[in-house]
Write a structure and sequence with these properties.
Shape: globular
Distance between the termini: 42 Å
Oligomer: single chain
Strand content: under 5%
Largest sheet: none
Radius of gyration: 17 Å
């Protein structure tokens, strides 16, 4: 019986990597202990061979070209998968919050307060960690375009929660063109 052809492993494109890091940053904006949660989840999920400590986890995220301090080395497919799995676990954990942000059943005032809190925290993190001269960062900080982009990030996180979330998110990140 002939072996099936081996598919070459594809790593994330630049856009996919940017999007993944923005999604992880969104999780940090929703959970004040999000950075610690990522480290804890990597240990719980047995990803210590990929991310043995918080510094290595941070280095992988700094492969994002939108960051103030960026690393030129590309992350491997295993490292990208590890980051996606961490994001899926965070999305599962944060799903009630994601759902309340996206719910149309919430009173409009309460919904707007929640969005304002999230956008404010995300903008703080963007200004602190990302290069404000980059177009992608400027769009997120823009008062006109930013709210819609924030909503897309939250929708993506919500869709990546649950069973099959890893596959959906990975496919989305591999196809990230814009």
């Amino acid at each position: 019986m002939a072996d099936a052809p081996v598919q070459p492993q594809r790593s994330l494109s630049r856009r996919g990597l940017e999007r993944l890091d923005l999604l992880l940053l969104s999780a940090e904006a929703l959970d004040l202990n999000g950075g610690e949660a990522m480290v804890w989840l990597s240990e719980e999920m047995g990803l210590t061979d990929l991310f043995p400590n918080r510094v290595e986890l941070w280095k992988r995220r700094c492969s994002n070209p939108l960051r103030r301090t960026t690393r030129r080395d590309r992350i491997t497919e295993a490292e990208a998968d590890g980051l996606i799995r961490i994001l899926n676990a965070l999305a599962d954990r944060l799903y009630p919050m994601l759902r309340s942000l996206l719910s149309s059943a919430e009173p409009p005032q309460l919904s707007e307060q929640r969005w304002a809190l999230f956008r404010g925290r995300l903008q703080e993190l963007l200004k602190e960690r990302f290069n404000p001269r980059r177009g992608g960062v400027q769009r997120l900080l823009d008062p006109q375009e930013g709210p819609q982009l924030c909503r897309e990030l939250i929708q993506t996180m919500a869709l990546s929660a649950g069973s099959g979330g890893f596959t959906r998110l990975k496919a989305s990140l591999m196809d990230a063109a814009a």
